[in-house]
Structures are given as C-alpha cells and as structure tokens.
Amino acid sequence: MNPQTGQVYARRRGGKAEVVRISVVTDEWVEFQFLHGPERSLRAGSGRCKVKNFDSAGWEPTDECAEYTHLDGATRYETFRVLDTKGEPILRCSAKRAAFYLRKGYAHKIAPNVLQFTDPQTEDRLRELYLGGFTEFFMEVKNDRCVCCGATTDLTRHHVVPKRHKKSVPQPWRSCLSNVLFVCNGCHRTYEDAPEPTIEASADWRAFVWAWRDHFRAVLKPQFLPNGWDIISVQNFAALEGSCGS
After folding, report:
1. What's the total number of domains in the chain?
2. Which InterPro entries match (predicted)?
C-alpha cells in the first residue's frame, strides 16, 4: 500500500478506532492529522511515521465522513461450529482455536466455518473436563452483542476478573475461567465509573472469581449473557489438576 496525500485511513486500536488524513508523503515519511481516536491521539493532533511503518501498522483506506464512531469497538472475528466425530455439533470456537485444531490435525474443515474432529481424543478430553455435558453456552455466538444492553456496535472485550487481578488465580485454575464478555463502550464506561470493590485474593480461588462475577452483575445488571455462562467453565477440577501434574 502506498499512502496517498489527502486520503483518510483507519485502524483499530483496542476498543477505539484511529482515523487520520494524510497531509504529506515523502519517500521516507508520512505526516497525518488525527480525525478520530483515543484522547491521547486527538490531543497530539498530528503525527508522522516512516512509510514502511505506516504500511505495516494496519491502516486501511476508509471513506471520509462527519463522524467515525461506527468504526469503534473490538474486531468481531468469525466463529466456527465444531462437530464431534459422529457429526453432532458440540461447540462453537474462535477462529484462533479453529486454526489450532486444523494445524494440529485434530479437526478438518467440512464446510465454511464448520469443522469436524478427526478422532475422538479431543472431544473425549473435553467431555472429561466438562463432565460429559455440553451446555447451551458451548454453541452460543458470544461476540455479537453487548451482554448488558444488547447493542450490536461499538463493542469491546471486558475482563470480568481484571487482567491485573487474574494473576491472583493460580494455575491450573486460571485456565478454568470464561473471563471475557463483550460489552459496548457505553456500558464499559458505566462499569469503569463505578467504585471498584475491595476483593482480596484468598486461598479459595473460586470465591475470589465469583466475587468479581457478582460485582459485574451488580453494576451492569446484564440482560443478554450467553445462555449457560458462568465465570468458571471447567467442571472437573480433578481431571484438570491431574493433567497439569503429569
């Protein structure tokens, strides 16, 4: 891509898009004006970078318009339905997880956005961890709306147990958490403006993560949580502990 003077470009940076208009292009440098983005970008007003860095930074041409809030929010990646070896749907996974299954040979693609496990080993392990039951939560599309108000735009990923506190949950239990929910930036601001509770880490890691779950529910009163969701997803703790110790 060769950046063009006067063209508007956009890229996603976390929950807020950045939008710039190119003002100067030389053989080595690109100079631009910020039209939309995080407060720090708008305060700066303008910026510059090397052409080669602009090309690799994720900028894409976009139409100029009066406002760009429709570009805000987390990128919603495609999801994949996963069938067991008998052809029955058992879960829905992210594109990243689907790529892992394909790369390892655990599954093959049988249709657009549909995978099937190639042998029962992986599905048997999942059944062991979840005590044989795949609830509605496993088949839910989890990135299509705000779990609080139902908005379908301007979404961001919310960590129920904040990332800075998640380290208080020891392994292997940390991998038991279903910790990310999609909320709109409006609801996320409401949550951030609420007083943060004093939740002390304790020997009982379940009580710790449940306390954060209950705080999230109390502040935002989510009406559109995925069916079957809870902060702790894995049910068979003995199987998980055994695999980590082997």
Report:
1. 3
2. HNH_nuc
